[in-house]
Design brief:
83% helix; mainly alpha
Length: 194
């Protein structure tokens, strides 16, 4: 046996640090996060819609559409952003730079949470809000259920899809600025914990 064979047979040293988490564990975690967040947002929606008029119901619908678009922008920005500018910001001790780096390094999970968890929950709650608006419109105006349902659903879909299309373009073009703002927001909470 020559020296070359010995080199190949030696074990490579394991990297120290946090052990890698399995994708299955993330799926279980995200399931429980989604259930909890869905319950909280659904409860908030029910409270806001309880006894609310037609205009208030439209305001709730718009709020959930905008919330979905907002988180979609964050989810796209975190996958499109480059880490380099945040390293120089962190060296200058810019608030939120370290938080932004952390988000970029976990882009797959952050994007999954923002786009899939929050985005889907907002879409579902917006759909149930549309149903409430249809019932309230029928009660108030006695209009045809089909026409009211079609118009409200088309409006909600158009706002969501159009808003997300604009948001995605903005998030890709301005990913650094978006993450800088998100990082600063998260920095406020990290300071409070300290």
């Amino acid at each position: 046996m020559d020296a070359g064979d010995n080199k190949d047979n030696r074990r490579k040293p394991k990297k120290k640090g946090k052990p890698e988490r399995s994708p299955g564990r993330w799926a279980v975690e995200v399931f429980f996060i989604a259930v909890a967040l869905s319950a909280v947002l659904s409860l908030a929606s029910d409270r806001a819609l309880n006894g609310a008029g037609l205009i208030a119901a439209f305001a709730v619908l718009l709020a959930f559409v905008l919330l979905g678009i907002f988180f979609d922008v964050i989810g796209v920005a975190v996958t499109a952003a480059d880490e380099k500018p945040f390293h120089s910001m962190a060296a200058r001790k810019t608030p939120g730079a370290r938080e932004a780096i952390s988000l970029i390094r976990r882009a797959d999970k952050v994007s999954s949470f923002c786009n899939d968890v929050v985005g889907d929950i907002c879409g579902i709650i917006a759909g149930s809000t549309v149903a409430v608006i249809v019932v309230r419109a029928q009660t108030a105006f006695g209009s045809s259920a089909m026409v009211t349902s079609l118009l409200t659903t088309a409006l909600a879909s158009g706002l969501t899809i159009g808003g997300k299309a604009l948001g995605k373009s903005f998030a890709i073009a301005r990913s650094t600025q978006v993450l800088q703002l998100v990082g600063r927001f998260l920095h406020l909470f990290s300071r409070k914990k300290r």
